[in-house]
Amino acid sequence: MVLTTPNAIGLQYIRSPSWCVNRDNFDQHIQAFTMPMLNLLFEKVGLRVLNEEYVNAFWMNRNPLQLIPKMFPRLKTDLLIVGEK
User: Fold this and answer.
1) What is the DSSP string of 27-75?
2) Residues contacting 14, CB < 8 A, separation 6+
């Protein structure tokens, strides 16, 4: 399984939670996760984690705040996790 999702402690999410989570419109994300939450979820369904990364999948503009996640990767906007049964 390859999964990407908004990072609940990502800088963009902290600045504006509605950026990636919209509980009024169910055609978008309704929950953001942290990497420990995803690890626990994978464990509960019997998946072994092969790889996990913090990525900036959609925040690619020239915002100077992007320098912060480069120094502190856990503040990147998205999570990528790969697991196998």
Assistant:
1) TS----B-HHHHHHHHHHTTPEEEEEEEE-SS--S--GGGHHHHHSGGG
2) 75
Summarised one tens digit per residue, pLDDT across range 31-84 is: 789 999 999 999 999 999 999 999 987 655 666 777 777 788 898 888 999 999
Q: Check residue 46 and give left, alpha or beta (phi > 0: left; psi -120 to 50: alpha).
A: left
pLDDT at res. 26: 60
Higher-pLDDT residue of 52 and 14 is: 52
Q: In b/e form, how buried is each residue of 24-39, taking b as 16+ CB within 10 angstroms?
A: eeeeeeeebbebeebb
